[in-house]
Design a protein that fits this description.
This protein is of the alpha+beta class and 318 residues long. It has helices at 5-24, 44-66, 71-84, 128-138, 146-156, 169-177, 239-244, 247-258, 262-273; strands spanning 28-36, 104-110, 115-122, 143-145, 186-191, 197-203, 224-226, 231-237, 279-285, 290-294, 298-305, 310-315.
């Protein structure tokens, strides 16, 4: 059947318009799934599971940005994936406190207007990053803690689960051994076609932590920060150190006040201001440049952009 010339013209116009949008759509997204002592002796099958999980998380965010979606949506969806995957210390795979329970923290920040939201010490919220976004967008406040955060979650209709939902055998074994403080956290930073930067961070904290302990992940400026003038940052590592040094904000401050590049600012904070092994950060600047630096033996991480970059790594030598 022949297509009328007018209809054919419309089809061609729509195709060319869509192609133009995609060709002009510039974005960068970086992710992390925690930093710390990551053994290279893990079985190859386990390594591949982690690589596959990182690729899937990165693909979720890339797809949203490629179709012209917002950095806010991309960051939330990526972290939702991490929170639902028991391999990572956030949501389903959260570590145990000293009391044998789970307390989760998360924060998100939008660089366009510096709006932000955070929750800490939640025990029944399936996806803390989504509640943090609701705090940012639907409340006049920035930070809700514990029971107050849970109450706000009920008001907003988020998904609740029993605390036992977060149980995993792997994390329980870590609690029993108490040989190391797990520094796992998940995060995502993205800049979209509009030039808006979003940073998000979510965590189950550290193994065997004292009841009520809060690390850097939900603290704006410490473990999470975004500003369209400079960059977005998500941190992972020993939270107390990132709080004391206000790491995420200071990366931005070094760029804005001292004229540092993103890489220079990231290196300064991780290698010169923090002790060896403290952890790492992922970051994206207003031009779409990215940095993924860490001083621990490894950091689960990945990056994708509109120029075709797509890679995931764990150790420094990769």
């Amino acid at each position: 059947m022949l297509i009328p010339n007018k209809t054919l013209a419309i089809i061609i116009f729509c195709f060319l318009t869509t192609a133009t949008i995609f060709s002009q759509n510039k974005y960068t997204i970086v992710i992390h799934g925690g930093a710390g002592t990551i053994s290279k002796d893990m079985p190859d099958s386990v390594k591949e599971d982690y690589y596959s999980a990182l690729k899937e998380a990165l693909s979720i965010g890339k797809s949203i940005l490629h179709l012209g979606g917002s950095s806010l949506d991309a960051v939330e969806r990526v972290i939702n994936y991490f929170e639902d995957n028991p391999k990572f210390n956030a949501g389903r795979g959260a570590v145990y406190t000293a009391e044998g329970k789970h307390e989760l923290d998360a924060s998100i920040m939008f660089g366009k207007d510096l709006s932000c939201g955070a929750v800490a010490g939640v025990t029944g919220i399936k996806n803390p990053i989504s509640l943090a976004r609701l705090v940012m967008e639907k409340s006049p406040h920035v930070f809700f803690f514990g029971e107050g955060a849970e109450q706000y979650g009920k008001k907003m209709g988020v998904t609740f689960v029993e605390n036992s939902y977060f149980d995993t055998e792997k994390r329980f074994e870590q609690l029993k051994k108490s040989q190391e403080k797990i520094k796992g956290t998940v995060g995502c930073v993205a800049i979209d076609n509009e030039g808006n930067i979003t940073a998000g961070t979510s965590t189950g904290g550290m193994t065997n932590k004292m009841h009520g302990r809060v690390g850097d992940s939900p603290i704006i400026g410490a473990g999470n920060y975004a500003n369209n003038k400079t960059c977005g940052v998500s941190a992972t590592g020993t939270g107390e150190l990132f709080i004391r040094h206000n790491v995420a904000f200071n990366v931005s401050a070094l760029m804005e006040y001292k004229g540092f590049t993103l890489q220079q600012a990231a290196d300064e904070m991780i290698f010169n201001r923090l002790p060896e092994g403290a952890g790492g950060i992922i970051a994206v600047d207003k031009e779409g440049n990215y940095s993924m630096v860490f001083s621990s033996s490894g950091m689960f991480r990945g990056v994708a952009d509109s120029e075709g970059v797509f890679e995931v790594k764990i150790w420094k030598e990769e």
